[in-house]
């Protein structure tokens, strides 16, 4: 009965697909029948929701059960749809997934400004075994409680101590670039080098652990990188969204193995710190950390208490630390890689940034950026922001509505529907940003503020579920970009990169640029 049931319903909502074609697909592929019957409660609401959602413009993707392509053409399609519909449209991922894609600030406001209990969690980001709270992925009450306890970990006083780590990690990467350039290797994959650099920094900031991962292989770093690749691959394959099926696959087994390795490392650090905290007492522990200037992310979470004196469990701390490592390195690496690409394509802006940094660090050795000096790099900051607009590290955020959500024009997103807040779509919407494909840092000139919605630029999301680590990320990007431009001229590669939207925005085959060491930019 199931194939007939689905063919009848889909013939209503997919008039371009004949019932016999759907019947054939379901008969030929037993896995589809099993998946459909085993999770009918998951699929049927999506079909039912297509009735109230039919008032929205619809883009139906074929073939059946396919996903939108995660490549340059897929992004161009999003750009085209944004120009065509301007605010919101219905996007079908196969016949079972009607997803509402929002591409205008006014239309994302009801979702971004809603309490966490109304927009409970991301639906298309499969990393629950890694940890799922830091970036706004956890659920309702628990998420709100943990968010409050996390906030001190990103206080300015904590972030100030991380600036030296960012400087040192950039020094190590640049020394490697200098060595490669002296050997004639000036064409480098920015993602490869910068990802290692951000992982190096994160291990020091989160665990006070120096793995020297930029110079030698690290089993832990390899596991983090593999998790990132596996989550991306799973996210793109609709049949692997259910744990039961995923963990039967070789990729699922690799995922669990990498998770165990990452969890074991974090658990060992937490246990060692907790034992030290118990033996020393919190006051002596804090004094020792302050004297050594080694208060890290794990320490702050161990010391965090709510108004009732309740702290985070070891499992909660592990989830937050692992999420920070997993999500933090990729997003910052994406942001840095693309801003270097944009400055390579616009040498006049690159040179102006370089002059700004040279003026700041004139007659100073060693060449280091300090926390209080970050505000003295306004043009460099403008260039970073415009790159984050044009190439947002996270192209979109998906959520499931826990109750009906009313849009500004009166249309309703029904309870249970999956919505994608398309950060890429908003940032490339011509009704929001004139000439959206043009790289123009002066859009963010503080001397000439432009009238636009605060939700027109949301590289770190916005509202209650915004990225709590955004100041950490911006600080690292400013430090690393400033030192990179001080020491190297960055030139475009002969081949134009093809954008690849995964969990973060990458480039197919890597983002390759050429670097030329500059005289006078000594480390």
From TrEMBL:
GO cellular component terms, semicolon-separated: endoplasmic reticulum membrane
Cofactor list: heme
Entry keywords, A to Z: Endoplasmic reticulum, Heme, Iron, Membrane, Metal-binding, Monooxygenase, NADP, Oxidoreductase, Transmembrane, Transmembrane helix
InterPro entries in UniProt: Cyt_P450, Cyt_P450_CS, Cyt_P450_E_grp-I, Cyt_P450_sf, Cytochrome_P450_Monoox
Localization annotation: Endoplasmic reticulum membrane
Main subcellular location of this protein, as a coarse class: endoplasmic reticulum
Binding residues annotated for heme, in chain numbering: 467
Molecular function, one GO term: iron ion binding
Topology of the protein relative to the lipid bilayer: Multi-pass membrane protein
Family membership: Belongs to the cytochrome P450 family.
Name recorded for this polypeptide: Uncharacterized protein
Organism of origin: Sus scrofa
Lineage, highest ranks first: Eukaryota, Metazoa, Chordata, Craniata, Vertebrata
